[in-house]
Amino acid sequence: MGNIAGFGTTAEAVFQNVIKAAKEFYPIFSVYAIHITTVLSPDDCELILSNPIHNEKGFVYKLIHKWLRFGLLTSFGTKWQTRRKILTPVFHFSILRQFVSVFNEQAEQLVETLKNEECNKSYVKVNSVLTQFTLKTISETAMGTKLEFKNKKDQGYKKAVHDIGKILAYRVIHPWCLEEIGNLLFNSSFFKERMAVKILHDSTSAVIEEKEKIFVYAELPKDEHDVYKGKRRLAMLDLLLSAKKNEGIIDNEGIREEVDTFMFEGHDTITTALSFMLMLLANNKDVQERIYSELVEIFGDLNKKLTYNELQNLKYLERCTEESLRLYPSVFFITRNLGEDLQTTSGYLLPKGTQVALHIYSMHRNPDLYPDSEKFDPDRFLPENCQHRHPYAYPFSAGSRNCIGQKFAILEMKVVLCAILTKFILEPVDTPQSIVPVVDIILRTKDEIKVKFVPRD
Ligand code: HEM
Predict the structure, then answer these.
(1) Between 230 and 252, where is the model more confident?
(2) 3 state DSSP class of 337
(3) Residue 98 burial (CB < 10 Å; 0-12/13-18/19+)?
(4) Which of 42, 132, 181, 232 is deepest in the core (most CB within 10 A)?
(5) Relative to the CA of 334, which ligand 1 atom is closest?
(6) Ligand 1, atom nearest to 267 Cα
(7) Per CATH, domain 58-335+373-455 is 1.10.630.10
(8) Residues with Cβ < 8 Å from 404, sequence gap 6 or more?
(9) pLDDT for 2-22, tens place per residue?
(10) CA–CA separation, 299 vs 321, rounded Å?
(11) Residue nearest (by alpha carbon) to ligand 1 atom 19
(12) Ligand 1: which of 263, 403, 414 to mutate, most ligand atoms within 8 Å of CB?
C-alpha cells in the first residue's frame, strides 16, 4: 500500500518503483492517491479476466477515447460483444494468409533501407526504422492503402501518430491530466493532442469514403471451413464495409473506430516487440544461429518469398518471439473496472468499482511461474514445457478479451525476422542491463534501442 509521491516523477522512476512494489507487496498493492489496485497473481488475473462482469476497461483507456472512441479495445458490454463477433473473422487464417505478401514486400524494403542507409553506421536506432515498416504494413492490411511517407498527407499522419504517442505518455505519468478537465488546465499539449486526433480521424475518414466509392462485396469467412477464395487481396476495411452493406451490423462511425483501433494496436505493439527482440538476439548469438539454421532447413533457398504454410513450420522462431514477449510484453499492464465485489485468491476483498491494474510485466518475471525468469530461454515455450504454464501469464492475455491480433502479430514478426536474419548478423550495442524501460501506454525505453547490423556474406 502506498501513495503516489513514493513512486517518483519521471517515467523511468515510476516504472522501476512499480516493479519494486510488485516484488515487495506481492500479490497485491494499492496506490491510494490515484485509486488503483495492482494485482500480480495469475490466479487473481484469471478471476478478473474470465468473468464478463469485469469486462469494462479501466482508467488508462480514457486516454485513448478521443482517438479510438469505443472500438473493440475500449468498448464494453453488449457493444463489445457485437464488435468482437464482427471482427473475429477479420483475423481468420484465410485473411491472414493474404497479408503475408504485404509483410514480405515491406520486409524487403526494410532490409534495403538497412543495407543502404543504416548498416554502415556503428549502430541502428531500431525503433524509428521499425515504426516506418509497421505503419506501412498495418496501413496496407487494415485500410488497403499504401503509406509512402513521401507526400505531405502521409508525413502528417506519421507525425500525428508520433505526437499522440508522446502526449499519451506524458498523461500516464501526470495522472491529474487523465480527466479532460485536468488535461485542459495542466497539459500544455492539450491543443496539439486535439490537432493530432483531428488529422488521424480525417485521414481514416477519407480512406473509408474512397474505399466505399469503389466497394466490391467481399465475403467474410464464417468458420474454419469457409475459406475465402477471391482473387483480390482484401484489407480489413473491405470486410468491415461488407459487414455494413450486407448485414447492416456496423455503421461508418463504427468502421472508423475499428480502423483507428487497428492502426494504433497493430503497429506500435509490433514495433516495440521487434525492437526488444532484436536487442535480445544481438545479445544471444547462439539463439540467432539456431534461428538461421532453422531457416536454412525449412526454406533451403533463402532468397525466395515465404509462404503462410512455411511460416507455420518455423517452430523455434515462434518460441523465440513468445519468450521475447514474455520478457518484454508490449502491453505490459492492462486495467479493468470491477463490475462487482471480488474476493481475491489471497483473501482480499476488492469492492465493486475498484480500478485494477494487472501487471503483466511483473507476472512474467515471477520465478514461481518462470524459473530463472531473467534468462532468455526460448525452450520454455516447447509444447512439453507449456503444459503447466499458467494461461493468464501470457503476453497476449487470455479469456474472451484476449488479443484478437495475436496471430497477425506473430506472423508479421516472423516474416520480418526471417528477412533480417537471413541478411544480417546482429551485434550487441544495448544490453538488457543498459536499456531503461519507462512507464507509457505500451512498453518503451527511455532512449531508442540500439543494435548493430553486420551484412551476412
Ligand atoms: C506483439 C504484439 C501485441 C501484443 C503483445 C498484444 C497484447 C494485447 C493484450 C495483452 C491485450 C489485452 C488488453 C486488455 O485486456 O486490456 C490485447 C488486446 C487487443 N489487441 Fe493486441 N497485442 C499485440 C498486437 C496486436 C495487433 C497486431 C492487433 C491488431 C492488428 C491487436 C489488436 C488488439 C485489439 C483490438 C485488442 C482488444 C481486444 C478486445 O478487447 O476484445 N493487437 N492485445
Answers:
(1) 252
(2) strand
(3) middle
(4) 42
(5) 16
(6) 27
(7) yes
(8) 72, 84, 87, 88, 91
(9) 555 567 778 899 899 999 999
(10) 19
(11) 403
(12) 403
Alpha-carbon gap, residue 1 to 113, rounded angstroms: 49
User: In 10 A of CB 3, how many CB atoms?
Assistant: 11
Query: Would the pLDDT of 218 be above 90?
Result: no
Q: Is the model's pLDDT at 34 over the cut of 80?
A: no
From 265, 400, 413, the mutation candidate for ligand 1 (largest count of ligand atoms within 8 A of CB) is 265
- pLDDT tops 70 at residue 224: no
Q: What is the pTM of this model?
A: 0.93
One-letter amino acid at 344 equals: T
- Would you give the distance in Å from CA 72 to the centre of its chain? 14
Higher per-residue pLDDT: 456 or 304: 456
Q: Which amino acid is at 273?
A: A
pLDDT at 217: 63
For all residues of the chain together, what is the average pLDDT? 90
Q: Which atom of ligand 1 is nearest to the CA of 261?
A: 35
Q: In this predicted structure, what is the pLDDT of residue 177? A: 87
Q: Which atom of ligand 1 is nearest to the CA of 141?
A: 30
Which of 406, 425, 366, 451 minimizes the C-alpha distance to 39? 366
pLDDT at residue number 5? 59
Ligand 1 atom nearest residue 84's Cα: 41
Residues with Cβ within 6 A of ligand 1? 57, 72-73, 84, 261-262, 265-266, 269-270, 273, 325, 329-331, 334, 395-397, 401, 403-405, 408-409
Interval between CA 266 and ligand 1 midpoint (Å)? 8
Q: How far is the C-alpha of 454 from the C-alpha of 457, rounded, in Å?
A: 9
Q: How much distance in Å is there from the Cα of 396 to the middle of ligand 1?
A: 7
Angle at 442 between CA 436 and CA 444, to 5 degrees: 20
What residues does each domain of the chain span?
58-335+373-455
Minimum-distance ligand 1 atom for the alpha carbon of 138:
30
Nearest CA to 202 out of 259, 284, 144 is that of 259
Distance of alpha carbon 44 from alpha carbon 342, whole angstroms: 9
The C-alpha atoms of residue 324 and residue 327 are separated, in whole angstroms, by: 5
Residue having the nearest C-alpha atom to atom 25 of ligand 1: 405
What would the grid cell of residue 91 be? 483475423
Q: Which cell numbers in the block locate residue 192?
A: 496539439
